[in-house]
């Protein structure tokens, strides 16, 4: 968390999956770093709950994992995956890339739509 904050990111933490869902329910996050192996409720169950959210209300999810996933992951919710241990610089670059992709996507879609309208 400290590394993310030093790099200019607003960051929050949850100790387990239950707490993560509580925080997601009360705050809008641009990106969630989700460990698949957490106490009380694992990351798979958190992804299952996020899958029930309306598409516009779902945060992006970057999965952090220590090994091979014993269960399939809903890739429609996951923007990327990092295997532990990972390099901190790789984490920072991946987070920045994920957030940048989200920030430019609506503008690109709007630009394509206005271009279609101009063509007609």
What can you see in these coordinates?
With 120 residues, this protein is α/β, with parallel strands linked by helices. It has one domain: Response regulator (Rossmann fold). Helices cover 46% and strands 14% of the residues. It has 4 helices and 3 strands, in the order ααβαββα. Strands 1-2-3 form a 3-stranded parallel sheet, with helices on one face. α3 links the parallel β1 and β2. α2 packs parallel to α3. It is globular.
List the helices and strands and how they pair.
Blueprint: H1 2-6, H2 17-26, E1 31-35, H3 43-50, E2 60-65, E3 78-83, H4 88-119
Parallel strand pairs: 1-2, 2-3
Main attributes?
120 residues; Rossmann fold; disordered C terminus; three-stranded parallel β-sheet; alpha/beta; single chain
Structural class: alpha/beta
By CATH, the architecture is named 3-Layer(aba) Sandwich
CATH class term: Alpha Beta
Indicate the mean pLDDT: 79
Order of helices and strands: HHEHEEH
Per the principal axes of the C-alpha atoms, what is the gross shape?
globular
The tally of strands reads: 3
Q: What is the count of DSSP helices, taking H or I runs of 4+ residues? A: 4
Instruction: Determine the N-to-C terminus distance.
Output: 49 Å
CATH superfamily: Response regulator
Number of domains: 1
The low-confidence parts are: 107-120
Cα gyration radius (Å): 16 Å
């Amino acid at each position: 968390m400290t590394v993310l904050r030093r790099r200019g990111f607003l960051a929050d933490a949850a100790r387990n999956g239950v707490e993560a869902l509580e925080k997601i329910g009360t705050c809008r996050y641009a990106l969630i770093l989700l460990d698949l192996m957490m106490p009380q409720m694992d990351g798979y169950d958190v992804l299952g709950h996020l899958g029930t959210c309306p598409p516009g209300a779902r945060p992006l999810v970057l999965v952090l994992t220590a090994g091979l996933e014993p269960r399939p992951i809903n890739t429609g919710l996951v923007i990327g995956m990092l295997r532990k241990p990972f390099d901190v610089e790789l984490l920072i670059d991946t987070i920045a890339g994920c957030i940048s992709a989200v920030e430019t996507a609506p503008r690109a879609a709007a630009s394509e739509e206005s271009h279609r309208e101009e063509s007609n």
